[in-house]
Fold this protein.
Amino acid sequence: MSSLSLAVRDSSTMLRRNLLHVRRYPSLTLNLLLSPVVLLLLFVYIFGDVMGAGLQGAGADHSQYLSYILPGILLLTIGGTTIGTAVSVAMDMTEGIIARFRTMAVHRGSVLIGHVVGSVLQCLMSVLLVGAIAVAIGFRSSGATALEWILAVGLLTLVSLALTWIAVGMGLVSPNPEGASNNALPLMVLPLISSAFVPVDAMPGWFQPIAQYQPFTPAIETLRGLLLGTEIGNNGWLAVAWCVGLTVLGYAWSTSLFDREPK
């Protein structure tokens, strides 16, 4: 069997293994998914009328604010799902299964590939669920074309891939699953201090650079423009550049950590 065929076979096996873990132990994914759903319902129904009026002017209601915050909530969902990936990787590293794989005729990179592909699929399924809830409570994307919808899905996939590789590295560097959960927490915190809930211009002057120059803000602004059919300016290129850079960084970091021989 060629090296490529071996890699594909073993990666497929590891992917099935990770998906079986999700099916058998769904509590971690559900707990992480609960936070963006609660935030979505809280901001729409408790703060939506006031925030919508602040953004759109008098007469606006929570439906306008729902359209504004949904892109941020979707990226928050991805960040939360990848925390589960970091925990899963840390569990594999601390429970001895990786040491067992090292003694077997298993393609070395298949373990990480299985985690990454499985995590991206989980992210997209979680986004689909949160998006369905948003549609059920009133979100409509009448201004977006079919091409913009395709680009939006592509962006969500790219963000999922970038954050997953970062989460894998965080899981590998953590001493235990609890440490992995704490190390990966910024993946959920950064969307909260971006343009997810209020425009950057409405923030205090000293805080605006923090919100502006981070990876989530251009991704949120791009996704918002694609879903609502509005202008995205340079945010699209910035979002793609951030995603590609984080993917390369996360891949290099993760593979270097994984290739170290255990002490």
